[in-house]
Design goal:
- The protein is of the alpha/beta class.
- It has one domain: Uracil-DNA glycosylase-like domain (Uracil-DNA Glycosylase, subunit E, 3-Layer(aba) Sandwich).
- It has 8 helices and 7 strands; from the N terminus they run αβααβββαβααββαα.
- Strands 2-1-5-7-6 form a 5-stranded mixed beta sheet, with helices on both faces.
- A hairpin with a 2-residue loop joins strand 3 (about 95-100) and strand 4.
- Helix 3 (about 65-75) packs across helix 8.
């Protein structure tokens, strides 16, 4: 898919066309592209960084360990996943091989910018009232500039398309925390941010 390609007319188009995407080289090492999922009129969109190993294999966002933690946080926040649209800033899994394991690598800025075409398409079609960006990569893709997560969380940011953005930490960041007390506090903040975004979206 090149810059001159027609804009997708439906979320079904995005799910199909992302499989043909050659806007950057990440498709070469991935099993498949992973588009977002959820209602076409979801008032709240959650945007993560990229598919992980299990998402790459399953073809669905947030089904791996970070997705399990996110699901637990949504349950505690009393936010119904079936009413949200979940997607990622980058649609292919970037990784490096370590033996037989595929370890996550953070997408480069050029890769995030190349994939912005898909995220913009999802935003245009879903038209969410609120977008909750999970982590710095997602925040940069949604807001268009570097956004410090801890300083900015809890504060709605007006976007050009009249939606509002909020930011929080990515569940995978919490999973990597070695200190259990810090992890518990981070999880509490994630729940708080999910609850706040849902309220702002009218859920």
């Amino acid at each position: 898919m090149a810059q001159a390609d027609p804009a997708p007319a439906s979320l079904h188009d995005i799910a199909e066309w992302v499989q043909l995407c050659r806007r950057c080289d990440l498709w070469r090492g991935a099993t498949q592209g992973v588009a977002g999922e959820g209602p076409a009129d979801a008032p709240l969109m959650l945007v993560g960084e990229q598919p992980g190993d299990q998402e790459d294999l399953a073809g669905r966002p947030f089904v791996g360990p970070a997705g399990v933690m996110l699901e637990r946080a949504m349950q505690e926040a009393e936010v119904d996943r079936s009413r949200l649209y979940l997607t990622n800033a980058v649609k292919h899994f970037k990784h490096e091989l370590r033996g037989k394991r595929r370890l996550h690598k953070t997408p480069a800025g050029g890769e995030v910018r190349a994939c912005r075409w898909w995220l913009d398409g999802e935003r245009r079609l879903v038209r969410p009232r609120v977008i909750l960006a999970l982590g710095a990569t997602a925040a940069g893709a949604v807001i268009g500039r570097p956004t410090p997560i801890m300083k900015s969380r809890g504060q709605p940011i007006q976007l050009a398309d009249q939606s509002q953005a909020m930011v929080t930490m990515h569940p995978s960041y919490l999973l990597r925390m070695p200190d259990e007390t810090a992890k518990a506090e981070g999880f509490r903040m994630l729940v708080e941010d999910l609850r706040g975004a849902a309220k702002l979206a009218g859920l």
